Structures are given as C-alpha cells and as structure tokens.
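Write out this protein's structure.
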Amino acid sequence: LGEVTKYLVYNTRKRQEGGDSAANYFNCTEVVAGVQDTRFQALMPDPLHWLGVTKIHNFISMSDMKYNAIVNTGIEIVNRIEIPKELVPTDAQVEITAKVFHGYNAGKSYQGIDEAELNETKGREYGYDKSDEKKNIIKD
C-alpha cells in the first residue's frame, strides 16, 4: 500500500466508531485505499525462479496468497513456521484475528477463530475525542 497509506489506514482503524476491531480490519483498508489488498502475489515467485529456488525449507509467512503463489509455480514448501502465541503482542490481536478469520495461516495455536471471536476482538481504547479535531486545524 505504501507507507503513507498504511498510516492513514492505521489512523482510520483507531479513530473509527467503536474503536479498532477485527471485524472491521479489512474495511478500513478498503475505505482508505479503495481495495483490501494491492499486492499482486502472482508475480512474486518470479525472482525466486530467477534465482533458481526450487524448495523452501522453512516458510515464515502467514499469507495464504504468498504461499499459494509460490507452490502454484512449482516451488516446494517443506515447513510453514507458525507464530508462537506468546510472541504476538496484545496490540496485534485485532490484526491477527482478522487475518486468520479471512484465511491467513498462523498455525495450530490460532485455529478455530470463528465469527463470534472476530466480532469480540477489539483494540485498546485511545480516548480519542472528536471535538479535539477542530482544535488541531491549521488555519492560513
């Protein structure tokens, strides 16, 4: 998406009505960028083939799109390394819950995320007051 767009998405997530939530995680990206994901993973394996890669022993990525793009071009992935739950910070629960619910692979420790858990997962409150927006407007 680009760094500026990412910051706009993060800002939208934190300031939306009801705060940051797993249920609205991908909606915020679509509101800001017009699409949920701008990456074109089908081309991603090309440099791997150019480098002569035929097998990846330890694949460290949650992305089902990356995984599928690689294996669909004939590169073997031996192990998908899962993210240990204790290494995922509390502030990342919104993102990881939304991604796993929508098909990302985070390993056995994150299996079984259902719609109820998706709707219950919320980020921390920032105490954002919309009336403060008017105070921070720069006038020429």
